[in-house]
Amino acid sequence: MLNGATAGIGLVHALYCDLRFAADNTVFTTAFARRGLIAEHGISWMLPRIVGHANAMDLLLSARRVTSEEALRIGLVNRLCSPEKLREETYAYARDLADFVSPSAMAVIKRQLYEVPFQTLAEATTEANREMMVALGSSDFREGVASFMEKRPPRFTGR
Fold this sequence. Notes:
This protein has about 160 residues and is mainly alpha-helical. About 55% of the residues lie in helices and about 10% in strands.
């Protein structure tokens, strides 16, 4: 949850999160270049992967202020909410993941997304096929199918 100014190292920390929800009045800036600093703490690696090379270059070189609307448009944040609803909507999203998504599937998907930039398409496909065979043999897969067929919430175990 991002609410208020998100700048410098605060922005870096936000980029290390898988998802970012922001209040619709949040303002973002890299700030570094305007203080005589370089892109630090991995922001030069994370930012282009999130917003693309050209947008990252713009944000890092200019260190300009970015509105929440622009942040949403360029993919810096995933969702905007009113400041009053930010906590409620963020927690509702997290609760939905906790209640209805397999922890083991989520862990593999996250790993896949972070490894893929370093793999060829063939490597990523081979690894995905291997992981699919593991998933098809898991109790979470069996529970996911059973909960769908029985029209009830799943009770995933993460196995």
